[in-house]
Amino acid sequence: MSRVIAAALFLLMSGCVSLPPHNPAEAWIEVYSASYDSLMAETLDGKTWGPGSYYQVTPGAHTLGLSFQYPAGPRDAYPDSCSFSLAYDDFQAGKDYHLLAGWNFNGAWVHLLDEQGEKLASQTCNSPYGN
């Protein structure tokens, strides 16, 4: 039994160490996604970005392309999706940023937050069920 627990802990921890080290000369932007939806990093400044869970960018202005899938209305079998193109002009070296998305009846939103949780930029996507 203890071997099973140890193996499970190892697998859980290995997911955490798969991210590259933070470069202090660049800004780190982590993409958060809840278990019932999916927010993925797709492009950086219009170019395909490989990893879906973070961005590491040079200081200055950048445009982050994101895709977001979230549960649809109660009668729909497939999730709704939105594409975001979120621009921010002042990424700073050595700083950590967070992208957080959510949804409600009116549609979806994404926020760029700084280390203190202050909203720096946001974008919305209207639901086909909203007003």
From TrEMBL:
Keywords: Signal. Residues 1-19 form the signal peptide. The keyword Signal applies. It comes from the Bacteria. This is Lipoprotein. It comes from Pseudomonas pohangensis.
